C-alpha cells in the first residue's frame, strides 16, 4: 500500500506538494514479492565521501525504487549525539529517507551516547524499532535487537556493541527462538561488528568481533542464514561461500564451500538448497566503506573480494536468487555475487581455497599524471575515424580478433568515440545494464621507411582498456587480470582529454604495409553511468 | 500491516546530558591500537580529562587487556567519582578477576550517592550479579527484585536473573509468577518461553500444553517444542518417545559437530536425559563444560539433569 503525505505545523504546510513525499508499506509476509534494498555502513561523517556514496547509489538506481535500506551502524560520528544525527544522518539522507524506511543497528559511535541496555539516548530517539514483532518475526521486547519479515525474507538485527553476546545470553536465546520460528525462504542478518575482517579492525583480536563469530554465527548457521552484513571496519570485504568458520584466528581450511567469486559472469553463482538449509553456506559482507577513511591491514583469508574504495551495497532478492552488488561513488558495480537456491545442494568443502581478489585505487603516480598528446604529430588513424566494433549483451569476439586477418563480417562499423551518456560519443551504445565490454579494431597502413618508433596512441576512455598491436597486448589500464569475458578487477576512470601512450617500444611488432590495432574497452560495472572509448593513432614529429 | 516511519522525538535523554565527546579529534577509521596510542598522547597533555581515560579503558577492554582497563576506569572515578558507566564497567571487570569484595565495595559506595531510580537500579542489578557469582542467592534475588521495581523497561536479563535465583532458592511457583509479570511488561517472547519452562519445572505442564502444541505447529524447527511437549506426557507414553526421537534427529541435522551451536547442544543434552539415555546426556554436558560457557541456562540445565526424567 502506498501513502502520500504532507507535514503541517498547525495550518501551515511545511513540505511542498511533491509526489516524493510518500512511503509504501511492506508486502504481506510470505508473499513472493521481490525486494530491493540498500546496505550502507560507517557513513556518518557529514562529509563529501558520505555524500558521494549516497549519490552513487542514486545514480545506479535512477528511476528504480528502493524498498527499504539497512544501516549497519556508525551513522552519526563522532558520538551519536542529537545534532550529529541531524547533520550526518537525517540531513545527508533526506531525499532517500523521505520515502524509504531505514532499518538500523547501533554502532559503537552511537554507543557513546545511547545504551542498548536501557534503550535510551539519541539513537533510540532517532528510530522507532519493533519490540512486539510489529513487522513480523518474534517479539524481542527491546529495540536493541529485533527481526522483521519482508515478503519471503526474514531479517534479523542484533546489537553487537553493548549487550551480552554469549551463546546463552538473552540476545542469543531470543535469536535461537526467532530462527526456529521463521518459515521464510531467505535469511539475512545484520549488526555492527564484523565476525570476519582485516580492514581497520581485526576480527582475530577484538573481543566484540570474536564473540559475534564464535558465539552468534553457529546459531545463525544452524538455521541456514544466507547473508550477514556488518560494518565497523572501514573497507569492503565480501566472503566466499563459507560455513562453520568459528575458529580464532580465522583460517580458510575446512570451512569454504565455494571459493569462486559467486558472479554469474565469472565463476558462477553460489548454489544452495531450496529454502533455509542449515550449514549450507553464508556470504559475509563488511560494508564499512560508506563514507569514512578506508584502511586495510591484510587480506582476510575467507574473502572473495576486498575493495579499498568507497561505496555501498544494492541487494535484490527475487524468486530463487539473491543478488548483491557493490556500487561505487560513480554508480558503477565493482562486485557482484549471486546465491541461487534450488533442489538439494550437498555440503562439500573446498581444499586450499583461492586467495581474495584485491581492488585498490590505482597508485597516484599512474593515474594522476597521464601523458598529454605531443605538440606536433601526423594522424595515422584520425579522431572520429570509422572502426569495426562488436558490442552487445554476452557478445565477445572469437580468438584471434586482435590480429589481422580476421573475419569481421558480423561486426558493425561506427565512428569513434564509442559509448553512452557523457555526450562525447559519435556511436551511441545501448550498454547500460546490458553489457560492459566493447571491442573495436581497425587496420592501418604504414609506408616503408616510416619511423616506427614515432607511433603513439591517444585515447580518452572510461573505465578501462586493453590495447593490442597486431595481436599482442601493449597497453592495459584499469583491468587487473584476464581479458575479454575473463577480464577482472576493474578500476574506475573518467574520460577527458586524450591520454597519450608512446608505442615506440613496440616497434618490432610493426611492419610496412597493413597492420591492425584492436582495443577492448570495459566499464567497471554494468550499471555504470557512462562509458567512453575514443582513440587516435599518430606519428610524433 | 504496521506503518513504520521516522518520528523524531525531541526528548533529550538523561544519557545525553552526560554525553562526552570522546573521540573528538580522533579519526574514526583507526584500529583500537591506534586509538589507544592517540589517546595516550592526549592524556599526556590533558591528564585530568576523565573522558579520555574512559575511552581508552573501553579500547583496552575490547583487546582483552583487563588490568589496563581497570587502571583507567579507576582513574576516571578518581577524577569523576559519580561516573556511573565507569563504576559498572569496573565492577564487572573486578568480578571477572575474582575480586567480588572490591566490586561490592565499589558499588555500595556509588549506591549511596545515586539520585535517579535508573542509576540505582543498574547498581543494584550489578550487585545482584556479584552475589550470584558468590552463590549468595537470597541477596542476589533481593537485589534484582528491587532493581526491577525501579525501571520502566527492564531488559530480559534482569527477569532471567530473578528466575534463576528463584530456581536456586527452590521457589518454583514464584519463579513462573514473576516471569509472567515480565512477559506482560516487555512482550518479549523469550520471557514467555521461559515462563513455559518454569511452568513445566513447577509441575504445571498441563496448563501450558495447548500453548506448546500451538507454537510447535507455527515453527519451522520443532525440537525445543518437542522437548517441552515430552515433559507434559506420561513417561511411558509412545508419543513422548516419538517426539523426543524426532527432536534428536532434527537437532543432529542442524549441529555442526566441529563447533556446535551451544543452544542446540544444550537442548540435545536435555533430550537425551529425558529419553533416559544418561550416557549421551553426560557426554553432551561434558562437551558444554569444555566450551566454558557461563550462563544461567547451564545452571538450569544442571537442575534439570538432577531431576527425574519425567514430570507429569
Ligand atoms: Fe564502528
Question: Key terms for this structure?
Answer:
heterodimer, A: 541 residues, mainly beta, Purple Acid Phosphatase, chain A, domain 2, Jelly Rolls, 2 domains, eight-stranded mixed sheet, seven-stranded mixed sheet, 7 helices, 35 strands, 12% helix, B: 312 residues, mainly alpha, 17 helices, elongated, disordered N terminus, binds fe (ii) ion, TPR repeat (chain B), Ycf3 (chain B)
Ligands, ions, cofactors: fe (ii) ion
Straight-line distance between termini of chain B? 41 Å
Kindly provide the radius of gyration of chain B, computed on alpha-carbon positions and rounded to a whole number of angstroms.
23 Å
Oligomeric state of the chains present here: heterodimer
- Measured as a percent range, the helix fraction of chain A is 10-25%
Average of pLDDT of chain B = 87
Percentage of residues in strands of chain A: 25-35%
- SSE order of chain B in H/E notation? HHHHHHHHHHHHHHHHH
Question: Overview of this structure, please?
Answer:
The complex is a heterodimer of chains A (541) and B (312). Chain A has two domains: 34-359, Purple Acid Phosphatase, chain A, domain 2, CATH 3.60.21.10; 377-540, Galactose-binding domain-like (Jelly Rolls). In chain A, 12% of the residues lie in helices and 32% in strands. In chain A, helix 5 (170-181) packs parallel to helix 6 (207-221). The longest helix of chain A is centred in the middle third of the chain and has 15 residues, at 207-221. Chain B is mainly alpha-helical and 312 residues long. Chain B has a domain at 220-312. Chain B has helices at residues 14-17, 32-45, 50-62, 66-79, 84-96, 100-112, 117-133, 137-150, 156-168, 172-186, 189-201, 205-218, 223-230, 238-254, 262-275, 278-290, 296-306. In chain B, helix 9 (156-168) packs parallel to helix 11 (189-201), helix 10 (172-186) runs antiparallel to helix 11 and helix 14 (238-254) runs antiparallel to helix 15. The model of chain B is unreliable at 1-28 (pLDDT under 50). Classes of the chains: A mainly beta (541), B mainly alpha (312). At the A-B interface, helix 4, helix 5 and helix 6 of A face helix 1, helix 9, helix 11, helix 15 and helix 17 of B. The structure holds fe (ii) ion. Fe (ii) ion (FE2) binds at residues 42, 74, 107-109, 192, 232 of chain A. Chain B: Keywords: Repeat, TPR repeat. Chain B: TPR repeats lie at residues 50-83.
